[in-house]
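User: Could you check the structure of this?
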Amino acid sequence: DTLSLQRNDAADATSANAIVQASMEIEELREELAACRGGGASSAMDDQQVDDDKNANASPSAVVGSAKSLSSSAWLTILIPSVSRGTTDYLSPTISAILSQIPDIPGNPIHESVRIIVVDNTPLEKGEHRAFGALRERHKDNPVISFHVQPKRGRSDEGADPDHANKPGARVRTQTKDLIYTIRRTPESSRHLFIMEDDFFMCAGTLDALLYMISKAYRMDPEWLAMKVSYGFNGIVLRSRDVRPFAAYLEKRYRDRPPDHIQTEWWQGEKPESRAYKENRSYFVFRYNLLEHIGVKSSLRSKEMVGFGVCGQEMNTELMFPVDAFDSGKCGNNDMSPCDRDAQPANRWVFMANPKRRPQYQPE
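Assistant: Sure, the predicted structure tokens are below.
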């Protein structure tokens, strides 16, 4: 027994020495790298990029849960692709508006089931995304929100050809690839995905409305495919089973059309492949716009956007393609379109009014 203990002590000592030696070698390697880079703040920034690149290669669920305790199965993940706009910061007010709708009350259904993931897609030549970095530091202990950086090195170059009306140039193709990368960061354990841009204000009551809409969609069509609550490539709601097929379809078509055109092509079944995937599953649009553009420097649009798509504006053809828009002619007394499957008045908020005071309960 004594001899066995001595052997164990020797083994422990050998293991401890190996760990110390490895730690010293790692530290020496860091110092050598710092010397090559010039040391100081640049070294710290490069170390952060190394960590970001490691996270980018990990599985989405591993990245999200790596630094803090998160629910293993979010009911709704809000996914926000972001890029630096220099000194202009739209991301901070966007995040602030969302967090203001997530009560810090344990047991509250929104607090327990909604998570936010922000993905920094800023290319190397545009430098640091300072707003993203500041938010990541500020919320490093907040389990509701997580941050992810797309590796800046190794991205394929789309060239420099200009954009055309309905044919994406290099700029739009690059942005679509960033969207695809972002969508694929969705944890597989999340039940639903909500995609929004980083320069949109979440209108009051949006998270409550999303919970209502999703529940109503399941009542009208248990196999529903997608929903929209805003315009552009924004305000998209998907079920978890459709997230990766949607990303794959975007990847297949990104050279042919802009992303907001491809989304419609997918959920409306406009091509043989998307039609086969859609089958008879429903696409729904909420009557009122729930995301309001707050900036004039858009990552997806070259024109300034002022006074357009405000909170509560009807999602008609002023904001949407006709096939995607809310149809007030057919669904004027409803809050979701199409409404042909909405046979039960209980599904409609408008019909909660009861001016004649008729009791709903009828004894058997």
